[in-house]
């Protein structure tokens, strides 16, 4: 998984981001001002930077060039929510621009898009005797191909991308079936049962009581 630098001067926000990144399998480091960010950049390799704009030392706009020179894609995370600020950030070369406050699932989805766009993702997920090749849409169990429908694979991909996070049935419908899908949450339950059976993941895809489901991996 990717190694991500979080440059955010508010410690509580930074810690929350780090916690969520770690839960889904990323490794991450923190910097709390512009000078710390530069030192981290000098001494470490990163696949992505989540960068606040309003920082002590050097602001995010000035830091952006240094990350670009190092070939590290940047997503701005900021409270600056005007259209001019968004346009400026994107025109300067940021890959994306997310306004605080934001939902964790939205952040993770956008991180995944940027990493894929820059060829920095590991498209093979392995757990126990199951291997999922996300790019190829192939699922293997004990080196035997497992046939999943297109919808089952999409649901599995959503669970993998948000592993260890509890997702409501409504959110799974939204992410795996699309915003315009008109259906009942029972549809999610049926597909979850099929995935559990095909992958022998009864104890991996957990039911979260009165809420939804979570793909629980170590």
List the SSEs and their pairings.
Elements: E1 3-7, H1 11-23, E2 27-31, H2 34-43, E3 48-51, H3 60-69, E4 74-78, H4 83-92, E5 96-99, H5 104-117, E6 124-127, E7 130-133, E8 138-141, E9 144-145, H6 150-161, E10 167-168, H7 169-177, H8 186-199, E11 205-208, E12 212-215
Parallel strand pairs: 1-2, 1-3, 3-4, 4-5
Antiparallel strand pairs: 6-7, 7-8, 8-9, 10-12, 11-12
Helix pairs in contact: 2-3, 6-7, 6-8
Describe the structure.
- The chain has 218 residues and is an alpha/beta fold.
- The protein folds into two domains: 3-117, Response regulator (Rossmann fold), CATH 3.40.50.2300; 124-215, Arc Repressor Mutant, subunit A (Orthogonal Bundle), CATH 1.10.10.10.
- Helices cover 42% and strands 22% of the residues.
- It contains eight helices and twelve strands.
- The strands form three sheets. A five-stranded parallel β-sheet has the order 2-1-3-4-5, with helices on both faces.
- Strand 11 and strand 12 form a beta hairpin.
- The protein is elongated and about 55 Å long.
- Residues 3-115 form the Response regulatory domain.
- Residues 122-217 form the OmpR/PhoB-type domain.
- This is Stage 0 sporulation protein A homolog.
- Keywords: DNA-binding, Phosphoprotein, Transcription, Transcription regulation, Two-component regulatory system.
- InterPro entries: CheY-like_superfamily (IPR011006), OmpR/PhoB-type_DNA-bd (IPR001867), Sig_transdc_resp-reg_C-effctor (IPR016032), Sig_transdc_resp-reg_receiver (IPR001789), WalR-like (IPR039420), WH-like_DNA-bd_sf (IPR036388).
């Amino acid at each position: 998984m990717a190694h991500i630098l979080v440059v955010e001067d508010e410690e509580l926000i930074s810690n929350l981001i780090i916690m969520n990144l770690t839960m889904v399998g990323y490794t991450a480091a923190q910097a709390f001002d512009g000078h710390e960010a530069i030192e981290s950049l000098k001494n470490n390799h990163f696949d992505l930077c989540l960068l606040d704009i309003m920082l002590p030392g050097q602001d995010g706009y000035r830091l952006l060039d240094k990350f670009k020179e190092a070939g590290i894609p940047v997503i701005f995370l900021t409270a600056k929510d005007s259209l001019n600020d968004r346009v400026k950030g994107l025109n300067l070369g940021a890959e994306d621009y997310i306004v605080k406050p934001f939902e964790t699932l939205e952040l993770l989805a956008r991180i995944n898009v940027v990493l894929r766009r820059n060829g920095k993702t590991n498209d093979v997920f392995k757990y126990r005797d199951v291997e999922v090749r996300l790019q190829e849409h192939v699922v293997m169990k004990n080196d035997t191909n497992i046939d999943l429908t297109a919808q089952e694979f999409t649901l599995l991909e959503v669970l993998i991308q948000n592993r260890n996070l509890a997702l409501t049935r409504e959110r799974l419908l939204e992410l795996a079936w699309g915003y315009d899908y008109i259906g009942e949450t029972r549809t999610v339950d049926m597909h979850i049962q099929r995935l559990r059976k095909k992958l022998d993941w009864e104890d991996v895809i957990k039911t979260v009581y009165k809420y939804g489901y979570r793909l629980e991996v170590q």
